[in-house]
TrEMBL record:
Main location: membrane
Domain of life: Eukaryota
Key words, A-Z: Coiled coil, Disulfide bond, Glycoprotein, Lectin, Membrane, Signal-anchor, Transmembrane, Transmembrane helix
Oligomer status and interactors: Homotrimer.
Residues of the C-type lectin domain: 203-321
Segments traversing the membrane: 45-68
Organism in which the protein naturally occurs: Enhydra lutris kenyoni
SMART domains: CLECT
Localization: Membrane
The protein, known as: C-type lectin domain family 4 member K
KW Disulfide bond (keyword) present: yes
Amino acid sequence: MKAAESEVPDAHFTVDKQNISLWPRESPPKTDPCLVLRKPLMVRAAVITLMLGLAASILLQAILYPWFMRTISDVKTNAQLLKGSMDNISTLGSEIKRNRGGVEATSLQVRMVNASLAHVRSQIEKLEAGMRDAAAQIQMLTRRWEEVNDLNAQIPALKRDLGKASSLNAKIQGLQSHLENISKLLRQQNDILQMISQGWKYFKENFYYFSQVQKTWYSAQQFCMSRDSQLTSVASESEQEFLYKMAGGLFYWIGLTKAGSEGDWYWVDNTPFDKVQSARFWIPGEPNNHGNNEHCANIKMSSLQSWNDASCDNKFLFICKRPYITSEP
Ligand SMILES: [Ca+2]
């Protein structure tokens, strides 16, 4: 077998640009008929196999080549797309870097705005508190205003009451004055009663003491002075009438005397002596200055014309006079 194979020349073929050449290197050796019959069959089978392989190869090339070419083209396209994406990513990175500063500035501004918002919020809260206070004040003022309105409504009634009160006040003042007068009168009556209990008579704001004993004119004057009084003066007709009626026809010294034997008549209590008005009180024909020794006057008769001049040394009853002075409360 090995000898047979070594005797068979190798078949050579080349594939060059799809041209296939097949040739033997040397002329085939001579063989026996059996071998010669079997060799073409084997060659043919080999050739057919090769042809088949060659055809399959061609067919595969024809099918795969476009597929490879499309795949390569797709890969190139994907590579370009990837590169573009990388470029875009790079651009985005730079933009991100560039924008980072802007973002930080924006963040700072946002913080500032937040701070401003907090300040504004606190201001708003203060304003709200102020508004609440103002509302409370307004409510209070409204209540006060209502109270003022109520008072205004009461003013007419108050004016009427005030008028009544004023009238009452006037009446009260009148009553007070009346009471004061009554009190004064009571005090006067008390004083008068006290003086009357001591033997004095009261007539028109004066007290009069009609003595029970007789004295000379001077002694009588001294007695009166010891009782805070003077021998009486006669300043009016009514007083003259009061005195002579009380005297009842008895002799009473009065306070009329002369300054010396030739002097004018005068009242010892310093009441001004009206010579003309007093002329009607003398007994007709008096004063006659009998014996040139009659320098003192006395009531002698129970009539308007009752005066007589007599000697001051005569002892007569006498009349003291004290003005009434209201005692202080
Ligand atoms: Ca006489």
